[in-house]
Specification:
Number of strands of chain A: 0
Shape of chain A: flat
Largest sheet of chain A: none
Oligomer: heterodimer
CATH class of the largest domain in chain A: Mainly Alpha
CATH class of one domain in chain B: Mainly Alpha
Largest sheet of chain B: none
Structural class of chain B: mainly alpha
CATH superfamily of the largest domain in chain A: NADH:ubiquinone/plastoquinone oxidoreductase, chain 3
Strand content of chain B: under 5%
Mean pLDDT of chain B: 79
Number of helices of chain A: 5
Radius of gyration of chain A: 25 Å
Mean pLDDT of chain A: 83
Number of strands of chain B: 0
C-alpha cells in the first residue's frame, strides 16, 4: 500500500462529513433559490412596510453591548477547553487506569472551584 | 491527492487570512476568520491530526471566534473607523515572522527524495490508524505529561477568576465599557 492510496482511503472516512457539508450548503442555497422562483411577487406598500417584517429599527445595530455578554463568552471558552481535555481522556480511559481517573477528578474539582466562585460572585446573574 | 488537498486548504487559508485584513467591516473580518479556522481544521485532518482538527473546530471556530465577535461588538467599531495606522509595526512583526518561518524550514530535516517521504508518511499514517491519534494524545497527556496537565487546569482557573474580577469591575464602577441601559 503506497502513501497516496493510503491517504485516499483515510480521507474516504471523511466522505460523510463532506456529504453533510454539501447537503447543508445545498439546503441553504436551495431554499433561497427555490423560494425566489416560486414566490408570488405582489408588492404592496403595506406588505413592504416594517410592520409586516418586524418592528421599526430604533438605532444602529452597531451599538456597544453590555459587558455581561463578555463574561458569559469568557466562561464558555474556559469550560469549552475543559470539555476538550475530556475527549482524549475518554478515548484512552482503559489505558491510563486509576491514575487517569484521579487526575481527571482533580482537574474537574479545580473547575468546580472556579464555577462556585463565578456563581457566588454573581457572574451568572443578569442583573 | 495529498498535494491537491494541501493546496486547496492552503490557498483558502491564505485567501481568508488576507480578507481578514482587507475587509473594512470588522464583522466581515471575523466571518472570514471563521472560514479560515474551518480550513485549518481540514488541513489537520489531511495530516492525520484528528484531535487537533477537533480542537480547531471546538475551541477556535466555536469559542475564540465568539470572543472576537464580542470584542468587535463591545468596542463599537464602525465600518469607516480607521485602525490601520500601525503599518510600521505590522511590517516589522511580519518580517520577523517570515524570518522565523524561513529559519524553521531551512533547519527542518526534509527528506531528499519524495518517494522516501511518502513511505515515511504512509508508515506514520498506518501507525496512527492502528492506535488512533486522539488515543495517543490521551495516553501521552495523562501519563507522561501528567503534571503540565494539572498546571493547565490551574492556569484556566486563574483565567476564569481574572476574567470575572475584571468584568465585574466594569459592572460595579460604570466605566466607558458600560454605556447601554
Amino acid at each position: 500500500m503506497n502513501g497516496a492510496s493510503h491517504l485516499l482511503s483515510y480521507l474516504a472516512n471523511y466522505f460523510p462529513v463532506l456529504v453533510f457539508i454539501g447537503v447543508a450548503f445545498a439546503f441553504g442555497a436551495g431554499t433561497l433559490v427555490i423560494s425566489h422562483f416560486l414566490q408570488p411577487k405582489l408588492p404592496d406598500p403595506e406588505k413592504l412596510s416594517a410592520y409586516e417584517c418586524g418592528s421599526e429599527p430604533f438605532s444602529d445595530a452597531r451599538m456597544p453591548f453590555p459587558v455581561r455578554y463578555y463574561i458569559i463568552a469568557m466562561l464558555f471558552v474556559i469550560f469549552d477547553i475543559e470539555i476538550l481535555f475530556l475527549y482524549p481522556w475518554a478515548i484512552a480511559f482503559d489505558k491510563i487506569g486509576v491514575i487517569g481517573m484521579v487526575e481527571m477528578l482533580i482537574f474537574i474539582a479545580l473547575f468546580v472551584v472556579g464555577y462556585v466562585y463565578a456563581w457566588k460572585k454573581g457572574a451568572l446573574e443578569w442583573d | 491527492m495529498a498535494t491537491l488537498s494541501f493546496f486547496y486548504f492552503g490557498s483558502v487559508i491564505v485567501l481568508c487570512a488576507l480578507l481578514v485584513v482587507i475587509f473594512r467591516n470588522p464583522v466581515y473580518s471575523v466571518i472570514s476568520l471563521l472560514v479560515m479556522f474551518f480550513h485549518i481544521a481540514g488541513l489537520f485532518v489531511t495530516l492525520h491530526a484528528e484531535f487537533l482538527a477537533a480542537v480547531q473546530l471546538i475551541v477556535y471556530a466555536g469559542a475564540i471566534l465568539v470572543l472576537y465577535l464580542f470584542v468587535v461588538m463591545i468596542l463599537n467599531l464602525q465600518q469607516d473607523d480607521s485602525y490601520q495606522r500601525q503599518v510600521k509595526w505590522g511590517l516589522g512583526l511580519g518580517l520577523l515572522a517570515l524570518a522565523e518561518v524561513i529559519a524553521i524550514i531551512s533547519k527542518a530535516a526534509l527528506p531528499d527524495e519524495p518517494a522516501q517521504s511518502k513511505t515515511a508518511a504512509a508508515a506514520a499514517g498506518e501507525a496512527a490508524t492502528v492506535v488512533g491519534n486522539t488515543e495517543m494524545v490521551g495516553k501521552a497527556l495523562y501519563t507522561t505529561y501528567l503534571f503540565p496537565f494539572e498546571v493547565a487546569s490551574l492556569i484556566l482557573l486563574v483565567a476564569m477568576i481574572g476574567a470575572i474580577i475584571m468584568a465585574k469591575k466594569g459592572i460595579m464602577e460604570p466605566g466607558p465599557l458600560r454605556e447601554s441601559k
